[in-house]
Write a structure and sequence with these properties.
This protein has 446 residues and is α/β, with parallel strands linked by helices. It is built from 14 helices and 16 strands. Strand 13 and strand 14 form a beta hairpin. The structure holds ligand KE4. Ligand KE4 binds next to helix 4.
Length: 446
């Protein structure tokens, strides 16, 4: 695998941008090595600046459910761009996309478009605080809701205690308002409500967690959150930035038959262009300016090119209904990965939901149902696996705690190539561990 051009670009980049990247995970900090500089994507494949081709399971972290450079999406983008790129004024395109969102998710009666998932989640939190007159928010350890201050908070010591900043620059006074509970643990949620009666504005949750690796909700968990939040006068907010339009055309809420009070969306909704959205019950959403007292705004919100990409993507999803085939592809991949890991003697757990999956590398096989269980993984083993797969033409998320994403463009050949590469990559992950252990042992004997 050649890297000289990526290496040269990276050297220049780090002299111009923090870490040489526009978003931290892209710097390969969790796996080491030089990031691949991508020059082109098409369908399920990527090409980097060094002439390497990959089967892509990052898909820009989720937006590309139809795959890279889908011809119909490109045509819609080109048609919109030819009429001007942005007006800062209403357009028919945002009305069309809003119509599709409201029709797709019955819990959404009104929707506001923004330009990222972070803007969507920070807006949803502001609405919840205004609607309830309360300041605290419950989030879950291991869930990620973008980089607004309120969400850059990690669990303090013990369950349901006040959050502590997980980032510099987040005031302790703000982190104090975020209570961190444990995913799939309703007792920790009840404890938070008991500890802060009448103070909690909302429960913020990824209905299928995908930022600690993929962790599905245990039966009854989401239903329990719906009941608990309602009984304590708090809003339930589903962060469907990843799951929305990916797990089904009606999101995770459609699969689970739960109506959250507010929903945040992004990624697939924009078809690869910058789009986020917050939506929900009319009386909540109309608290937003200009109809209500909650301010929120954005120069490029509802941008016509992004709206065109979103409309085309949702229409293509409704026309082609790729969801059954995505389930089949994912099932075939998981089956092949499990066989490859077994043959190599690798200790793993795979969590998968629809077109999302994570291979957790472990010291001993155990379920992964929360951050406390996810964080015990064998990160060096994942890093070895990541590089071994990249060397064999498979581009995985450069972090153990990110999801693998499949698209409607992933073929049976892609899956077969991935499984074949995995046989050798699992062996490399295991032998690397053995080599490391033996060198450690040799070091101890010296
Ligand atoms: P953005 O601001 O990155 O568009 O969305 C934030 C966000 C909100 N909610 C959920 C559930 C999310 O997963 C995200 C962003 N996802 C990460 C990947 N896990 C984006 C990748 C990155 O940060 O570079």
């Amino acid at each position: 695998m050649k890297e000289e051009t990526s290496r040269k670009l990276y050297t220049r980049a780090v002299s111009l941008m923090p870490g040489g990247v526009s978003s931290p995970v892209r710097a390969f900090g969790a796996v080491g090595g030089t990031p691949s500089y991508i020059v082109r994507g098409s369908g399920s494949h990527l090409w980097d600046a060094d002439g390497n081709e990959y089967v892509d399971y990052v898909l820009s972290w989720g937006p590309l459910l139809l795959g890279h450079a889908h011809p119909r999406v490109l045509a819609a983008v080109q048609e919109a761009a030819a009429k001007g790129t942005t007006f800062g004024a209403p357009t028919a395109l945002e009305v069309e996309l809003a119509q599709r969102v409201v029709e797709a998710m019955p819990s959404i009666e009104r929707v506001r478009f923004v330009s990222s998932g972070t803007e969507a989640t920070m807006t949803a939190l502001r609405i919840a605080r205004a609607a309830t007159g309360r300041d605290r928010v419950i989030k879950f350890a291991g869930c990620y809701h973008g980089h607004a201050d309120a969400f850059l908070v990690q669990a303090g010591s013990g369950a349901a205690t006040l959050g502590i900043p997980s980032s510099s620059g987040v005031p302790a006074a703000l982190a104090d308002l975020t209570v961190v509970a444990s995913y799939n643990d309703l007792v920790s949620v009840e404890a938070a409500f008991q500890r802060y009666p009448g103070e909690i504005a909302c429960v913020f949750v990824e209905p299928v967690a995908a930022n600690m690796g993929v962790v599905p909700p245990e039966p009854g968990f989401l239903e329990g959150l719906r009941d608990l939040s309602r009984s304590h006068g708090a809003l339930l907010i589903f962060d469907e930035v990843i799951t929305g339009f990916r797990l089904s055309y009606h999101g995770a809420q459609g699969l689970h038959g739960i109506r959250p009070d507010l929903t945040t969306l992004g990624k697939v909704l924009g078809g690869g262009l910058p789009v986020g959205a917050v939506g929900g019950r009319r009386e909540l959403m109309e608290m937003l300016a200009p109809t209500g007292p909650v301010y929120q705004a954005g120069t490029l919100s509802g941008n016509p090119i992004a709206m065109a990409a979103g409309i085309c993507t949702l229409d293509e999803l409704r026309r082609s209904d790729p969801y059954p085939a995505l389930e089949d592809s994912s099932r075939a991949l998981v089956k092949g990965l499990r066989e490859a890991a077994h043959n190599a003697g690798a200790t793993i757990t795979i969590n998968g939901v629809g077109s999302l999956l994570t291979v957790f590398f472990q010291q001993e096989v155990r379920p992964v149902r929360s951050w406390a269980e996810a964080e015990r993984v064998d990160r060096p083993a994942y890093a070895r696996f990541f590089h071994a797969m990249r060397e064999r033409g498979v581009y995985l998320p450069p972090s153990q705690f990110e999801a693998w994403f499949l698209s409607a463009a992933h073929s049976e050949l892609d899956i077969a190539q991935t499984v074949q590469a995995a046989h050798q990559a699992f062996a490399a992950a295991v032998s690397g561990a053995v080599a490391e252990t033996s060198s450690l042992r040799a070091g101890q004997e010296r």
